[in-house]
Design brief:
single chain, 202 residues, 9 helices, 0% strand
């Protein structure tokens, strides 16, 4: 390692233990489970419309939108996991220390808690799961179309998106909104994959 001088050498870089990384990721994934994003109706009815401005969910509608609020929170958790620099770093560090949290392992955990998760019985939980699924898809698309990240990371998310689109073509739920969401998502991913850099969601 390069040092500034003998009296004050730079400290060596250290890996965060893999178990600690996995524990933190698990906590993050717990925070975006529909049951943890759900706001009790007893609280929602107290969020009266603001006659001037609604700041709670960052929308122009004076009525509080709990799904928009869930989207904001989910994006705060999920989007940074797919940051291009973070992805490149995870690929590089995993090559040096195989027992660290790998990029595919991280992606698989996010998918397991969103696109592979079973929808709850209530319409509210189904809607909240769609929110986290949409945020995940858009985060993966952003990374897949990014420049300057690790090619391996881009390859993996693009492959996962292609597999997701194939799965959604035949996935059925029974709820008309969810079924329409599946079909539209499959169409969006198929279009995106024709040119990931040009078709990154705005």
């Amino acid at each position: 390692l390069t040092v500034k001088d003998e009296a004050r050498p730079l400290p060596p870089t250290q890996f965060i233990p893999g178990d600690e990384q996995r524990e933190i990721l698990s906590l993050l994934m717990d925070s975006v489970k529909p049951e943890n994003l759900e706001i009790p109706e007893s609280l929602l009815i107290q969020l009266a419309a603001d006659p001037v401005e609604n700041l709670e969910d960052l929308s122009r509608d004076p009525v509080f939108d709990q799904l928009r609020a869930a989207r904001i929170l989910s994006a705060m958790v999920i989007q940074p996991l797919f940051d291009p620099d973070r992805a490149a770093r995870m690929v590089a560090l995993a090559a040096r220390k195989p027992d660290t949290l790998t990029f595919p392992e991280m992606v698989d955990q996010v998918m397991a808690h969103t696109w592979r998760a079973q929808a709850g019985g209530s319409s509210e939980q189904r809607a909240l799961l769609r929110v986290t699924q949409s945020v995940t898809m858009e985060s993966m698309m952003a990374l897949g179309g990014a420049r300057g990240t690790a090619p391996e990371a881009k390859d993996y998310v693009l492959d996962q998106l292609a597999l997701l689109a194939d799965d959604l073509k035949t996935r059925k739920d029974g709820d008309p909104l969810t079924d329409a969401f599946y079909r539209e998502t499959a169409r969006q991913v198929a279009h995106y994959l024709t040119n990931p850099e040009a078709n990154v969601p705005k």
